[in-house]
Specification:
The chain is built from 17 helices and 17 strands. It is of the alpha/beta class and about 400 residues long.
Length: about 400
């Protein structure tokens, strides 16, 4: 049952639980939902009269509800309390050296996408790329060949809304690949159950590990801090061209260039305030995807390695596609384990602390997402008492200070 405090999609937005995935804009046949990109707050929907009060979109809104129970019920899947369901876990990289070099880590997502386009005869890959008009922002793109995939390869540390173009998949003559953040993929996973055309034409869902995107204004301010006028920037690359790759700024018509190391750029961007919903994220590793990929940070030694990816195979469909891609020579993989993956990631800390953050919002009478079938209270038990108090009271304090608390929903 949905939280009584979230009665409509408008409530989700006002409670700052929206992550701007765009699924509501794609699904609404009345075209009553539009997306705006606020560089301070991120992407969020605006509604025509009457549309924001509709409850229909709540069923698939990841800011309102996520059902982890069905994932745990899958007979073929193993389950890890911090990583979720999985069939197989690998470390690997794209065989194509340019894809491996241009990708964020080992180029696994780009390699899988290219295999699908070239061997499975799919229409296109729906994913995210740089907005050429405002390079510090993103736009939703379609790639149908290797050149287009390479053009948009690499991480984009800014808000994105790939679900806004789901109708393009539903209307396609061939099946397609969807690539998105874990919350984007969760929305698609739920929505496809009631959207027949989408379900029939969605060939593969890929996700990547996510710690929450900073607002678009964070990148703009980082550029300005380098003495570069954002309006003169022609392109921004956050990562890639090596592992992890530099933050690269091209400006003055592409004639000038500036770069920062990954640590310098991410250290600046990570300091910016993320949306409230990102601080309540229960899934940073793409549990609803067919395959989720991330950096194999436990193998990173600053030794010039061109990149290694972790691949969490979560569904029989994902297992089948990965096996065919490896056989066709698109990827090289070797077996890994949950312990190896977690040894190089910090995302598990957020999941362990989730129960306390939700408790803080409950004390403040603030609306909370409904995470069904997630045993967050079990993970919470392993945190020392003093740390628990800091999490609960710290979350409450930040919620008030950041003016999330502008009303008390009784």
């Amino acid at each position: 049952m949905l939280s009584r405090k979230l009665r409509s999609l408008r409530d989700v937005v006002e409670a700052q639980l929206c992550i701007g995935c765009g699924a509501c804009a794609a699904y609404c046949e009345k075209r009553g939902v539009a997306l705006v990109n606020d560089e301070r707050k991120g992407i969020h929907p605006v509604f025509e009269e009457g549309c924001g009060d509709c409850r229909e979109c709540l069923a698939f809104c990841p800011g309102a509800v996520l059902d982890f129970g069905k994932l745990r019920e899958a007979d073929t899947a193993k389950y890890h309390p911090l990583l979720g369901p999985w069939l197989e876990i690998y470390e690997g990289y794209a065989v194509d050296p340019e894809i491996r070099y241009r990708g964020s880590s080992g180029g696994a997502i780009s390699a899988l996408s290219l295999y699908f386009l070239e061997h499975e005869k799919r229409a296109f890959v729906l994913h995210t790329g740089m907005d050429p008009e405002k390079p510090w922002q993103n736009r939703t793109v379609r790639s149908s060949n290797r050149h287009e995939l390479l053009e948009h390869a690499g991480s984009r540390y800014a808000p994105s809304s790939p679900c806004e173009a789901l109708r393009r998949i539903a209307q396609s003559s061939l099946s397609c690949v969807f690539v998105g953040k874990p919350c984007d993929v969760a929305a698609v996973h739920t929505l496809r159950a009631s959207w027949t055309d989408l379900h029939e034409r969605l060939g593969l869902m890929l996700s990547f590990f996510c710690a929450g995107p900073p607002p678009g204004g964070a990148t703009r301010e980082l550029v300005a801090s380098q003495g570069i006028a954002p309006e003169s920037v022609t392109s921004i690359r956050y990562r890639g061209n090596g592992w992890p790759g530099d933050f690269q700024i091209h400006y003055d018509g592409g004639r000038a260039y500036r770069s920062l190391t990954y640590r310098e750029s991410w250290g600046s961007l990570a300091a910016y305030r993320r949306p409230l919903r990102c601080n309540l994220c229960p899934d940073g590793t793409g549990e609803f995807a067919d395959i989720a990929c991330g950096d194999a940070w436990h193998r990173y030694n600053e030794d010039g390695n061109p990149g290694l990816s972790v691949l969490l195979v979560r569904t029989p469909r994902g297992k089948e596609i990965l096996e065919r891609a490896v056989k066709a020579g698109y990827l090289v993989v070797e077996a890994s384990s949950p312990e190896r993956v977690l040894s190089g990631q910090g995302l598990q800390k957020r999941r362990m602390e989730l129960h306390g953050r939700l408790l803080a919002l409950r004390f403040l009478c603030w609306p909370r997402p409904d995470y069904r079938g997630l045993d967050s209270a079990v993970l919470w038990r392993d945190i020392p008492f003093r740390r628990k108090m800091r999490i609960v009271f710290g979350t409450a304090r930040r919620t008030v200070v950041r003016r999330y608390l502008n009303r008390c929903a009784g």
